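Figure 2 data, in text form.
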Amino acid sequence: MKKSILYRCFRLGAFPANVRAALEREGVVAIDEGVGGWFVMERVTAPGRMYRHRREWFLGSIAVTRERLVCYAFSKRQINIPLDDPRMEQVRILCGADGVLSIAFESSLFREGWNGVIEMRFHSDITHRFHDVLPMEE
C-alpha cells in the first residue's frame, strides 16, 4: 500500500525519533509507519466521556520488538505493552486477508475507571510479518 502524502511529506504517522531509537535498541522484529487505520470504540465509558459507538481514522505506526508491542496514532502512544505481560493474553489480535491488522482490548485492562472495548485497525501491507510474531486468534 502506498504511504500517505502526509507521511511522505511531513512524516505524520511516524514514531517519534526517541521512541524509534528505543525500539531499535530492543531489536525490531516488525515495524510499519505511516499506516492508515481507525479506532472503533464500543460502549466505552470513562471519567467525563461516554461513547456508544465511535469510529475515528488515524495515521499511525505499529512495531513489535523482542520485548513489546507499540502502537502510535498521530504521534501519540496508544499501546505499549510487554509481550510477556499477563494482560497480553486478553488482547485480541486478528490478521485479515484484506491487509487489516486488528488489535482489540477491554479498556479497563490499561486505564483505571474506563470500561468498554477499544479496537485499533491498521491497514498495512506487511500484516503477514505481524502475524508471524504476535499471538493471533484463529
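Caption note: The longest helix spans residues 17-26.
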